[in-house]
Design a protein that fits this description.
The complex is a heterodimer. By secondary structure, chain A is mainly alpha-helical. Chain A is built from seven helices and no strands. The longest helix of chain A is centred in the last third of the chain and has 34 residues. The chains are: A mainly alpha, B mainly alpha.
Amino acid sequence: MNNIRKYIALAAKILCIGLLFYVFTAGFYAQVPQLPILNESIRLLYFHVPMWFGMIVLLGIASYRAICCLRNPSPRRDLEVLSFTQMGMFFGLMGLLTGMIWAQNTWGEAWSNDPKQNASALGLLLYLAYFTLRQTLSADQEQRMRWSAAYNVFCFLSLIPLLFILPRLTDSLHPGSGGNPGFDTYDLDASLRKVFYPALVGWILLGVWIANLLIRIGEIQKKS
Amino acid sequence: MSFKSIFLLLRMDLYTEWQGKVYISQGLLSIGSLLFLLYLSTGEENISVPIWNSIFWFFVLFLSIHLCGRTVQEDAKYLSSLILLCSALELLLSKIFFHWILLFTFSLLFYLCYGFLWGYQIPQHSGLGLLILGGSTLGLSTVFSWIGLMIARTQQGAILLPTLGLPLLLPILLLCISSSENLIYGEGNDQLLILWAVLGLYIGASLLLFPYLWDE
C-alpha cells in the first residue's frame, strides 16, 4: 500500500513537471487567436485563471483536512491545514497580481473596482484573520488546533458566496457576468483549450506538491 | 438538546438583563449619541440613499459588536459552571436568540429614530425591510455568539471579537447593503432570497461545528 502511494506521488510529480514544461513552452510560443484589445495578453489565461482554480482546490483540501482535524485532532492534521491554507493564499495572491497585470494592459488600470477583484481581495483578508487567530492562541496547542480548524471551515464557507455569488449580482468586467460573454461561448477556441486544461492540472499539482513539502518542513522543525 | 433548557437559559439571560439593564441602557445611550453626532455633523440636510444605507448598516454592526462583546466579558465569569449544566448546542442557541432579540429590538428602534430625522426610505416595502433586518441581525448574532463564546472560553480579550468576526460577516453585510439599496430603489428583491440562503449556510455550519469545539 505504501509502495503504491509512493509510485502515485512520483507519477504526479513527473506529470506536474511535464505539464508545466509544456505550458511554459506552448503558452509562450504557440499560436493564439488575435483579438482586439486582448492581443497577446490572452496568454495570461494559462497563468491567471489556473491560480484561482488552484486556490479553490487547495483551500478546499485545507477545509476538508480541517473537518478531519475537528473529528480527530492531531498536530499532523493541524500542520496539513496550515500548509494547504498558506499555499492557497499564495496562489490567491499570485492570481491577484497576474490579474492586475492583465487588467493594466486590457482594462486600462490595474485596479478598476471590479466586483470580482474586490471580492477576491476580501477573500484573502478573510484568511488573514485565520492566521491572526493562530497567533493569538499560540499558548494552548490543543485549543489552537480545534478553534483554528473550525475557523478555517467557516472561512471557506464565506469564500463561496464571496467568489461565486456576490460578483454575479452586479456588472463586472470579467467574462461571464454583467452581459459579457463567458469563456465557454466562443472566446476559448480549440488552440487555447489545448494549453489551458493541462495548465490547470499542472498548476494544481504544483500547489499540492509544495504544500506537501511545507508539511514535511514543518514536521522536521517540530522535531528539532 | 432540549428546548426547555434553551428556553430556561434564554429566560435567565433576559431576566439578568432586565435586573441590571446594562445592555439596554448602553444600547439606548449609543443610539442617542450617534443620532446627536449625525445631527450635528449633517444638520437636517437630506442624506443621499447610499450614505443613508451605509450609515444604517454600520450602526447595526457597531451595535452588534458592542452587545456581543459585553456578553463575552460577562459570560466568562460563570461559563465554567454553565458547561456542567447544559450542552454546547443549547448554550449556543440560547446565546443566539438572546443576542438576536436585543439586536433586532435596538436596530428597529434605531431605524425608527433615524428615519424620523432623515426620512424613512422603505415605507412601501416595510415587510421585506423587516425580513432583511431580521436576517442580518440573525446572521450577526450567530457569528458573534459562537466567536464570543470561543473567546470567553479561551479567556482572550473582547477586542478579538471584531477582528475574527468581521471578515466572516463580510458576505452577509455586503448582501444586506445591496439588497436594502435595491429595496429603496424598487429594483426587485431576488437578493433577499440569496441573503437567507447564505444565512442558512452560516447557521447550519455554526450549529454543526460548535459541539466539536466545545467538548474537550
